[in-house]
Amino acid sequence: xxxxxxxxLVALLEPQAPDSFAAWGFFNTAFEQQEYLEAYVAEDxxxxxxxxxxxxxxxxxxxxxxxxxxxxxxQARFDFFYRRSSDWDERLNLYPVYRTAQxxx
Length: 105
Fold this sequence. Notes:
The chain is mainly α.
């Protein structure tokens, strides 16, 4: 980038920079959950996942048996199935700016 303000642009887009767009909140929507699984359908979704995905069913059964905190937490069990449902937003917390490798010539 042979531009006079290239360094400013790089600093603005670097998420860990103190004066970046991310630090100033310009990308907050990238970190906000947009999709939800309503609690009233969660049980049906969980049953469907358990019936159709033997690996998820085995993982859930093992986690309940081995993790007392997970077994006692309705929210943790909800999250287990929510993350495996079609309602889960894969883009949650994905920063919308990409780095490219610098090529030296």
